[in-house]
Amino acid sequence: MKRLLITGAAGNLGKLARARLGHMAEVLRLSDIGPMDPAAGPQEEIVQCDLGDEAAVMDLVADCDGILHLGGYSVEGPWKDIQTANITGVYNLYEAARAHGMPRILFASSNHAIGYHTQDKVLTVEDPMKPDGLYGVSKCFGEAMASLYHSKFGQETAIVRIGSCFEKPADRRMLCTWMSPDDFIHLIECTFRVPMLGCPIIWGVSDNDEGWWDTRTARLIGWRARDNSEIFRAEIEAAAPCPPADAPESLYHGGKFTAEPIHK
Questions:
Q1: How many CB atoms sit inside 10 A of residue 223's CB?
Q2: InterPro entries attached here (predicted)?
Q3: Which class is domain 3-259?
Q4: What does the pLDDT average to over 37-43?
Q5: In what order do the strands lie in the sheet with 104-110?
Q6: How many CA atoms lie within 13 A of 39 on its CB side?
Q7: 75-111: buried (b, 16+ CB within 10 Å) or exposed (e) per residue?
Q8: For the chain, domain boundaries
Q9: Mutual orientation of helices 89-99 and 134-153 as an angle, nearest 10°?
Q10: Active site amino acids
Q11: Is the pLDDT of residue 240 over 90?
């Protein structure tokens, strides 16, 4: 690619992508509403942008050949904050993409779009959305926008329902939801390299021994996870006591998010 846009570049996943995707494009255009480190050289462009600003997003997407959309409000919070970044912001992004030749998009959705499903069921992408909070609702909206723009205009998007992407799992639930940084980067590479993408939903999770999601749709883009949380099991089980059987983290895919209040 000539230019790859990474939104949310100041966040943890954005920083990971910035550090490891330089080989994917001649220029990485890095954007966030907050401050970012200065450009490391001519291969990087720094553009501070509020996703809620329609004109700014229109300019942000210009001349981009691909969009890694990690930006937005990433936790449960007040509706006005989620709405601006994750509802209005997603609409602005898709309209800007439509105006600028429809560059391929990887949309970072979340397991919280299906968080109220119980852990006794292995989910496929055909199972209904069941969000566990307002943040999850906003991710359902983003998935719906991706589907609409693909059906109506042919806009290609990989909808990636990210589980828990960290260097290693932090608790027992993450033994099921963990996606390694290496697997995440490989997934991004496959998304932008596959000749035809369409608009698949892909579970963003490593090849863990214990899991809740049927990951076969990832094969459509040539991605197979390589890492497994099992190597951390002894460490996690020694450090984190097993939660009660009736605790949210024992019952639901979304874990503690199901217990979050509606924030005002």
A1: 22
A2: Epimerase_deHydtase (IPR001509), NAD(P)-bd_dom_sf (IPR036291)
A3: alpha beta
A4: 96
A5: 44-48, 27-32, 3-7, 66-69, 104-110, 157-162, 201-204
A6: 13
A7: ebbebebbbbbbbbbbbbbbbbbeebebbbbbbbbbb
A8: 3-259
A9: 20
A10: 135
A11: no
